Amino acid sequence: MFVIITYDIGEKRVGKVCKKLREYLDWTQNSVFEGEITKGKLTRCLAELKDIMSDEDSIYLYKVENPKAIVKEVIGEDRSFDRLFL
Question: For Mg(2+), which residues are the binding ones (predicted)?
Answer without folding.
Answer: 8
